[in-house]
Design brief:
0% strand; globular; 249 residues; mainly alpha; 9 helices
């Protein structure tokens, strides 16, 4: 049985013409094809499919300049933007290390399942951070907003890989809370941002499903699929609550 949020998103996406071949999981099944997952080389931004994406394509000179930047008290927007990018670069390096260590401990099937989850997360991260940035499109603060989001999502992804916790709520409770928060955020968005937000949430569902498939099969912590779905739904609810505050300004 599909979650209420999944059914609602599919119905809305069909109405707005933004659905792209999406099938959601339930606590009994995690088969999801929310979008065509790109090849590892293209999605991970590297010729090595085992490597998560580099932080950016900046030149070594630019990276050196940023590494020399003191971010204790940036005073200009440019410095704030650079410091936000630097924070993301650090978080990205930490995720790469955790990802590679975990992958090296898995059998071939587990490595493939982890790669699929990581590709789904990358799609979600980029759409979500683009959604945050677009609220400030054309402003000098936009690059900082994007990098801050990438750093935050990267830290959360690292935590997801190294720290599997059991949820405090049931899946039904967590899903109901997520639906309510989703509706609240949708109500404060302009129409064009509503469409973008639907894409973000569809990508998150795809990521959630693929990660829970991985976690149930290969996590060292014994966890049921419904427990993984509940934990991730509760975390997503917290993120959307923060988005409500930001988009209500």
């Amino acid at each position: 049985m599909r979650s209420l949020l999944t059914r609602y998103l599919v119905t809305r996406a069909l109405a707005t013409g933004v659905l792209i071949g999406f099938t959601a999981c339930s606590p009994q099944s995690t088969t999801t094809t929310s979008r065509d997952i790109p090849s590892p080389e293209r999605a991970l931004g590297s010729a090595d499919a085992d490597q998560p994406p580099p932080a950016s394509d900046r030149t070594s000179a630019n990276r050196t300049a940023e590494s020399d930047l003191s971010c204790e008290a940036p005073t200009t927007q440019l410095e704030m933007n650079q410091c936000a990018q630097q924070a993301y670069t650090i978080a990205d390096a930490e995720l790469n290390q955790v990802y590679q260590t975990l992958k090296s401990q898995l059998p071939t099937t587990g490595q493939q399942t982890l790669t699929e989850a990581e590709l789904a997360w990358i799609t979600f991260r980029d759409l979500d951070c683009g959604f945050d940035r677009d609220q400030y499109a054309g402003g000098s603060i936009a690059p900082m907003i994007y990098s801050d989001c990438q750093a935050e999502q990267t830290l959360l992804r690292t935590q997801e890989l190294v720290q599997t916790e059991l949820p405090e709520q049931s899946y039904e409770e967590a899903d109901a809370a997520l639906n309510q928060t989703y509706d609240s955020l949708l109500s404060v968005l302009r129409e064009e941002r509503q469409r973008a937000f639907v894409d973000v949430q569809l990508a998150w569902i795809a990521y959630r499903d693929r990660h829970c498939t991985f976690e149930v099969l290969y996590s060292q912590t014994v966890i049921e699929e419904s427990q993984c779905l509940a934990r991730m739904s509760a975390l997503r609810t917290e993120q959307l609550q923060a988005d409500i505050e930001q988009n209500s300004l």
